[in-house]
Write a structure and sequence with these properties.
Blueprint lengths: L1 H10 L2 H8 L4 H6 L16 E5 L11 E2 L5 E2 L1 H9 L8 E8 L2 H16 L5 E8 L7 E2 L12 E5 L1 E2 L15 E5 L2 E2 L3 H7 L6 E5 L2 E2 L5 E4 L5 E5 L6 E4 L5 E5 L14 E3 L7 E5 H9 L14 E5 L5 E2 H9 L6 E4 L5 E2 L4 H6 L1 H4 L4 E7 L3 H13 L5 E6 L13 E4 L8 H8 L7 E4 L11 H9 L6 E7 L3 H13 L5 E6 L7 H13 L4 E5 L4
Parallel strand pairs: 1-4, 4-5, 5-7, 6-8, 7-9, 9-11, 10-12, 11-14, 13-15, 14-16, 15-17, 16-18, 18-19, 19-21, 20-22, 21-23, 23-24, 25-26, 26-27, 27-28, 28-29
Antiparallel strand pairs: 2-3
């Protein structure tokens, strides 16, 4: 049998074997060199290489061997693999620490070889330093024809195009910068070198001076800025569709958020996931002359930050977003609510197309209730609504809600809470409890009775992650006995291993007892 398997594997072409080796850690891939003469150097032609210094605990002797006879260090291994690799390289990922100028020179030789010889498409560098006195590592891209590079991810390093040392990344589609701290000139020069750039990520970066800077990226589709101190940057990005932004500003700064990263043209933006300061600025100018147009905006995710967003600004934003389909407010406490009913009503027309609503940290005060009420009333096309309420709050009234999915996040979500929610859904038809085992069950039978009392019109019920505990069985029995309108009940057990034989027999008995309805027992999880 072993000979047959070996023969079948050896009949595969090199391309298939190399594809399989791509899924192995570099050490495991290297050990295949002992299988046969054909395999001896095959692993050195892997089209995707990743080297992480955590796999090589010592820079002296790691105990890892390329041929099983000699141990060597990380830099020697990368030299042997990369500098002897003369085929196409789809991706190269390096995670290492630079200790001296010699390490920097060696790293430069690897990068040049990967670009010039291997025509690498995706290059990822995650660099840390034992001594930062030499400054941030700068990639020697000006020495290479970089047209093969389509994706570049840099952490703790950068590149710069200067007169006489020009960098041209003519095929680059995505650029990710993490932990880059440099001068104001570097960012526009980086982007000037990337005329085809479609995705830009700037995380935990900063620049040293406060002058305003203008960056042009005419083909840019996606922009993500998080945890970065950049001063004022004006983006000329007429094709921009997706913004993901978290501010790094003090609430005392009147020009926070989008005033720090100004987007020249917002007409094509389809999704904004950002903290309150961006929406504060957009909403503030939403009704004025020259206000931004968000005709294509379909998704809004409002994240918490130190800013407080007035409801007026949110409603102004909704009025300039006629195509909005999905609204997520991650922290209701970031909204300042006092406003007139007329203002709430004025946002109704633009909410009529809303399909998804997600509200978290709902406190249940009067103003929050009012806002939710108007959103639900205006959103006539609403298909899905999720909200995470703080413990003990009063739920909104869901007079037209027919489907409820309950996803307990912790044991704090008790059956009493579920009963109070379902009591505000008078036309409920379908109930899904996604983590039955995570609910908190009381000893009081009156709570179980209260659940049944408010779901008299229920037709379909699905229970997932069912462990067969006494409390879970009690809930199922109460629902089956007290809900005559039920047509379908699905019980998906967490694992057959956790169910006692007595529980299985009891479930089968319930199937026979309530033969008038469709009671399905499933085990979809391994």
């Amino acid at each position: 049998m072993e000979g047959t398997v070996e023969c079948r594997i050896n009949k595969l072409p090199d391309s298939a074997l190399l594809h399989m080796l791509c899924f192995l850690p570099i050490k495991a891939a290297a050990r295949t060199s002992i299988l046969s003469k054909r395999w001896r150097r095959l692993w050195t032609a892997i089209p995707s290489l990743a080297f992480d210094e955590k796999d090589f605990p010592s820079r002296q002797r790691s105990g890892f061997s390329l041929d099983g006879t000699e141990s060597t260090d990380l830099f020697t291994i990368v030299n042997q693999v990369l500098l002897n690799h003369d085929r196409f390289l789809r991706s190269l990922c390096l995670r290492l620490t630079l200790r001296n100028d010699s390490d920097r020179r060696v790293l430069g030789s690897w990068i040049r070889h990967a670009i010039v010889v291997n025509q690498v498409e995706e290059l990822s560098l995650q660099i840390s330093y034992s001594d930062r006195s030499s400054g941030l590592y700068e990639l020697p891209l000006h020495l290479c024809d970089c047209r093969s590079i389509c994706h570049l991810k840099l952490s703790g390093s950068h590149f710069c195009s200067r007169p006489g040392r020009e960098v041209v990344l003519s095929s680059l589609q995505s650029l990710s910068l993490h932990g880059v701290h440099s001068t104001v000139a570097d960012f526009p020069r980086m982007l000037d070198a990337c005329p085809q750039l479609e995705k830009l990520v700037i995380h935990n970066c900063s620049k040293d001076v406060t002058e305003d800077v203008q960056i042009s990226a005419t083909r840019l589709l996606s922009l993500s800025i998080k945890g970065s101190v950049l001063g004022k940057i004006k983006m000329i990005a007429p094709s921009l569709q997706f913004i993901d932004y978290d501010c790094h500003d003090s609430p005392s700064d009147e020009d926070g958020g989008l005033r720090k990263v100004l987007v020249d043209d917002t007409s094509r933006i389809r999704s904004i996931a950002a903290c309150a300061c961006i929406f504060r600025v957009l909403g503030r100018h939403g009704d004025g002359v020259g206000s931004p147009k968000l005709d294509e905006l379909k998704v809004i995710v409002l994240r918490p930050c130190s800013w407080i967003l007035r409801v007026e600004s949110l409603l102004s934003l909704l009025r300039i977003s006629p195509s909005l389909r999905s609204l997520c407010i991650e922290d209701f406490r970031n909204l300042s609510h006092p406003f007139t009913d007329a203002a709430y009503e004025s946002a109704g027309l633009v909410l009529m197309h809303l399909q998804n609503l997600n509200i978290r940290c709902f406190s249940g005060n009067e103003e929050e209730q009012k806002l939710v009420k108007h959103i639900l009333k205006a959103a006539s096309s609403l298909e899905y609504a999720f909200y995470k309420a703080n413990k003990g709050v009063e739920h909104p009234q869901f007079n037209d809600l027919e489907v409820v999915a309950i996803h307990p996040c912790s044991r704090e979500l008790g059956l009493e809470y579920v009963a109070s929610l379902l009591g505000n859904c008078p036309v409920l038809r379908s109930l899904y409890i996604e983590k039955c085992s995570s609910l908190s069950y009381p000893n009081d039978d009156a709570v179980y009775e209260s659940v049944v009392r408010v779901i008299q019109n229920l037709r379909r019920m699905s229970v997932e992650s069912f462990n067969g505990t006494q409390s879970e069985m009690k809930l199922v029995k109460y629902v089956l006995k007290g809900t005559p309108s039920l047509e379908l009940v699905t019980i998906d057990v967490a694992s057959m291993d956790v169910l006692a034989l007595s529980v299985i027999n009891e479930l089968l008995h319930l199937q026979k007892m309530y033969s008038q309805l469709d009671l399905k027992l499933l085990c979809t999880r391994k």
